[in-house]
TrEMBL record:
Residue intervals of the SAM domain: 36-82
Annotated source species: Sinocyclocheilus grahami (Dianchi golden-line fish)
Cellular component aspect of the GO annotation: cytoplasm
InterPro entries hit by this protein: SAM, SAM/pointed_sf
PANTHER family recorded: DED DOMAIN-CONTAINING PROTEIN, STERILE ALPHA MOTIF DOMAIN-CONTAINING PROTEIN 9-LIKE
Protein name: SAM domain-containing protein
Pfam families: SAM_1
Amino acid sequence: FKDSAGNVIIKERKGKERKGSVNLCSPIQDPPLETWTESMVSNWLTSIGVKETYIKKLHEEEVDGRILCELSEEYLEKKIGLKSGPALLIIKKRDELINSQKARS
């Protein structure tokens, strides 16, 4: 959700809200992946076109940015139950994001 100033409002567990200026379409403004919350990961997964059922599975598994950095395609398929296409997409886009963040630092 966005407020009137264009800030992203992320609903955290237990109804807490967190405001930020994260623009998931513009990686230049993204905070480091390792600091992302579960909700930020879910928003990013939505932005890259992952189906809601898979996003819910990853959220239920409490995947935050730190964990997302460690996931493998095989783990997503065998342990989380994702199909190979979405698993490959997530890993490919995650690696692109990590590389773009490293290039900026």
